[in-house]
Design goal:
Strand order of the largest sheet of chain A: 1-2
Number of strands of chain A: 5
Number of helices of chain A: 18
Number of helices of chain B: 8
Shape of chain A: globular
Strand content of chain B: 5-15%
Oligomer: heterodimer
Largest interface: A-B, 138 and 111 residues
Helix content of chain B: 40-55%
Order of helices and strands of chain A: HHHHHHHEEHHHEHHHEEHHHHH
Chain lengths: 590, 195
Amino acid sequence: MTANGWFQILLYLLVIFLLTKPVGIYLARVFEREKTSLDPALRPVEKLIYRLTGTDEKREMRWTEYAAAMLLFSGVSMALLYLILRTQKWLPLNPQKLPNVDPWLAFGTAASFTTNTNWQAYSGESTMSYFTQMAGLAYHNFASAAVGIVLAIAVIRGIARRETDQLGNFWVDTTRCLLWVLLPICLAASLVLVSQGVIQNLRAYSRAKLIDPYTAQAAGANGKTTAQRVTEQVIPQGPVASQEAIKELGTNGGGFFNANSAHPFENPTPFSNFFELILIFAIPSGFTYTLGRMTGSRRHGWAVWATMAALFLAGASTAYWAEARGNPLLHGVDRQATAMQAGGNMQGKETRFGIADSALFATVTTDASCGAVNSMHDSFTPLGGMVPLVNIMLGEIVFGGVGAGLYGMVVFVILAVFIAGLMVGRTPEYLGKKIESYDVKMAMLSILVLTFTILGFSAIAAVEPFGTASITNPGPHGLSQIVYAYSSSAGNNGSAFAGLKVNTPWYNASTAAAQLLGRFFMVIPILAIAGSLARKKILPASSGTFPVTGPLFTTLLVSTILIVGALTFFPALSLGTILEHLMMLAGKTF
Amino acid sequence: MKKNLVIAVRFTLVTTVLCGLIYPLVVTGLAQMLFPRRATGQPVEKNGALLGSRILGQEFQAPYYFHSRPSAAGTGYDPLASGGSNLGPTNSELIRRVEERVRKWRAENPGTPIPADLVMGSGSGLDPDISPGAAEFQVPMVARARGVSPEALEALVKQHIEGRQLGFLGEPRVNVLELNLALDRLYPLRGRAAR
């Protein structure tokens, strides 16, 4: 570990802290329909969209209609993506003449991008046409991010409003989210990325003549290796920057290329890396302030922020420490960080990022439900790889996905005030709203859906041949590969212990099911809570009210999250990453 | 419900045109106008021939070139198959591969500790860089094969070290393709036909 590494991690948190208030205020203004400086340019476009779609912008919805509209939009747009994937051969902007995507992969990919997971069982550079990347995949990065954001806004309205059943209009919220928040930021951000070297064009791939041609041993069809003369390198092209910006800002994570943000064309410099990291946390962190502002308790917003920041620092430090120590099984390798080399466990990491930026990225991308990677988590040390896994298992509420992180955290807040209420023997209250049995049941439901999805599918895949045949790292690591796959799917993250061979009918179908369950069966109970809270009266605080601000509350919230997470997933972790760590120290390989 | 379904269909189409076509095409236009070279992958050309991209790594096997890191992309540095090996830390295949590389490099420069990045593959399989330590480690091999003094090569390596961006971001590094092109320019291969 180096002082410079720690400096980057702390500086990152400082930048996020400074962005929280301005982003939070802006989000609140957009959805409260207050004036913003972009109104003169965007208001006409907004009105045009309402006219074209037949939306009545004055009408609001109850939680059931809000949920129905969200499901209809997700369903229709998922069907369109499936159609694009299955017909890309006949569509424009396909200079590489890539064929149509096969049905299982198309279904898996459509589910994955609709749910903001962006789990990828394919290599973008050799599977997806430019049209598919732009109008199919990048479009869903916008759509699924907007859906996450407006759901969180509906939940905040539920907390803030009183004695009403109206939570807003799904179409109006989504339109304003796209026009005021996602598109303008992405437009600027994609140009910043291009200035660092992220490519953006519609050309066909070009061929470079190698200055040092060589002979490679390639595996032939019959399993024998054959010598093959390599004299050229194909240079891929494509509209990458426009997708990269929304991939990070919308915490989507689906890479244009297979190597994702490790690829030099997606993430060419340490600055582009730092900038992408900021895009990931910008909206989720701002949302804590939006929560505070819209509910009238800014201190509650900051208490939630502090909870997230504490869990973030714990994860980033652990990952950095574990990766900087490196792998003791590799003898003869200099693991010491010096001015001349990053040292540590460089397997699966880029030279320009080194250990600190890779550990930081792995932590941030799984704290949020982003899932972009700038290094290969499968090759992390056991404890280093446990950090992203645990982050996802906790429900991605450490800043979390855009919107999803906030409404996920609200579930834990409700659980925390419920537990506090039990301890002192009073009816729990949250910002003046009585938390009753219906609300706690719905909160538990959304937590249990995640648990059952992750552990249920993992259990099947860990014992059935169609599950275990895909393992590529034997021993305890193999179990981690499977558990990571379903955690990532159910949590809508999309990162992976990517060695697992997932382009099989079982994995395409089961991860898609986990993604859909993890997204929609989590969201619907939460919207039900919002609907229930909105109907309630706001009671004045009394001396017996447990405060949802300050260090005591933050401590309680952190404990609730860790206890729920630990009780649920400790057995799976101890048989996977923890066992592997002990085996590694004992010098055992598999 | 039916009304919302109609809106959903129209909304999907309208926003696909807006976010899926207009937005990326506007970005493409602006990018090509403002940063034409960077938006097309920083091509490296010599006498009209494309030699590669400045920021995509290439495989080098001849001893008179500096070598890139091990790559798991296809047969090595194949941009159509970007990615890492994804071998886990206790996988005996990883241990075997790294030990093999350690043996190979130790023979080239005995007694010097081997930098981690030189024997461990990158995440993209297309890493254009090696650490300054990994470049310096290879100086004896390249100096012998090219018939150049090690001091001259060390100076060349130093010139090609790119420090941390803004002084603190990322890690110092050396771009292998640029370093090797500089080698060819300053110390052309004599008597050995450029293959």
